[in-house]
Design goal:
- With 257 residues, the protein is an all-alpha fold.
- It has 8 helices and 2 strands; from the N terminus they run H-H-H-H-H-H-H-E-E-H.
- The protein has a two-stranded antiparallel sheet.
- It is globular.
Length: 257
């Protein structure tokens, strides 16, 4: 079975997380905070198990050769562990990272799913991990937001932004280390080059790859992505947290007058 963009399956991938989250919230509306937290933990564990099954399949099919794809440092792979840690430790920073960073990129992977068209068969762990793995990231994060697990103010937003920037810059060094030391063309956080068919290609084309010895970097690409990332995450933060607070304050004032 192959995948086609803008097919019923593709629409299901894009709409499914929101529909399933709505159903889950309806079923769990009278359940306790702890019950909902455990649901988040179990769903995160399910996503991680699916990721491990995918990685084992890749490892076996490659003839038991090391592949950077099986090391879960890519944005959406890393997101599964971020969500599990967030629910487990009740971490505002981890929840903020998942909501501001992992969620939009996971959803973009559902929209710009061009890579799936290159799969000879999507009825594999790798194919199913792409589809349901990204859907789970979106679903779990929206579930956390709609049930009050994610609490951000401007100070926490800045902390999350600093963390995202640090991880992004660090990924560049990890990619170069893997390439130089192990001859693996790692591309964690898409710091080396953009995913084909995504808007990231526009930013990559603004600059060019420079070499510092064996170290490779497209400085303009990275800087422009960081700036654009700040813009997008700040808009998401304003719409998801500051706007509801403003509307709530106005409602309270109206009720007291």
């Amino acid at each position: 079975m192959t995948f086609t963009l803008w097919s019923p399956l593709h629409y299901f991938m894009m709409i499914g997380p929101f529909v399933i989250t709505f159903i889950m919230n309806f079923i769990l509306k009278n359940k306790s905070y702890q019950t909902k937290r455990m649901v988040g933990i179990y769903l995160s564990i399910l996503a991680i198990l699916l990721l491990f099954a995918r990685n084992i399949e890749i490892f076996v099919l490659s003839g038991f050769k090391m592949d950077y794809e099986i090391i879960p440092l890519q944005i959406c792979h890393f997101a599964n562990f971020v969500l599990l840690y967030a629910f487990w430790k009740k971490s505002d920073t981890a929840f903020g990272l998942a909501f501001l960073f992992n969620l939009p990129l996971a959803y973009l992977s559902l929209i710009f799913a061009d890579g799936l068209e290159n799969y000879a068969n999507i009825l594999t762990f790798r194919g199913q991990a792409y589809i349901f793995g990204h859907m789970l990231i979106v679903l779990i994060t929206i579930f956390a937001y709609t049930n009050g697990f994610i609490r951000l103010n401007i100070k926490k937003y800045v902390s999350v932004s600093v963390l995202i920037t640090t991880l992004y810059v660090l990924s560049l060094f990890i990619n170069n280390i893997f390439r130089i030391a192990f001859d693996l063309n790692a591309n964690y956080f898409y710091a080396q080059h953009p995913e084909s068919g995504t808007p990231l290609e526009f930013f990559f084309d603004l600059g060019k790859i420079s070499n510092i010895g064996n170290f490779e970097v497209n400085v303009i690409y990275m800087i422009s992505l960081i700036i654009f990332g700040y813009l997008v995450t700040f808009i998401i933060y304003l719409l998801a947290f500051e706007l509801p607070r403003l509307l709530n304050r106005k409602t309270i004032r109206l009720e007291t007058n």
